[in-house]
């Protein structure tokens, strides 16, 4: 079966939850959020008001996902997307799945008339940085901070 990239659907809930846990806990080694929180987030994204989630299926199996959140830029006085997540399970990396998810996010951004798509990645994630460079990404002039 060919690779399928599509919007997440309600029937994806369980498989997408597992994939998100693999991303959060397995890949980034962060604490496991409560399942209710993950399900709530997926539900919000299914509504497509604050963001949208895409999934990648290979042989009818969920192998990756990407998440776009919608926000605004005061400097551009317009809306833009933030690609908050782009995750593909290990065995499907470097097979074109990442590129297709990225391009779907970019297509959605353009078709829905957002000004641009932005994203961040960890400073030590050199593999992702090489991928984003290859996809035409340009490192910005801003330094990201966060606080708890």
Automatic annotation (TrEMBL):
User: One short Pfam family name for this protein?
Assistant: Acetyltransf_1
Q: Does the keyword Heme apply?
A: no
Domain (N-acetyltransferase) ranges:
3-148
User: Which UniProt key words apply to this protein?
Assistant: Acyltransferase, Transferase
Residue ranges crossing the lipid bilayer per the database entry = none
Q: Acyltransferase: is it a keyword of this entry?
A: yes
Name this polypeptide is given: GNAT family N-acetyltransferase
- Native species: Paenibacillus gyeongsangnamensis
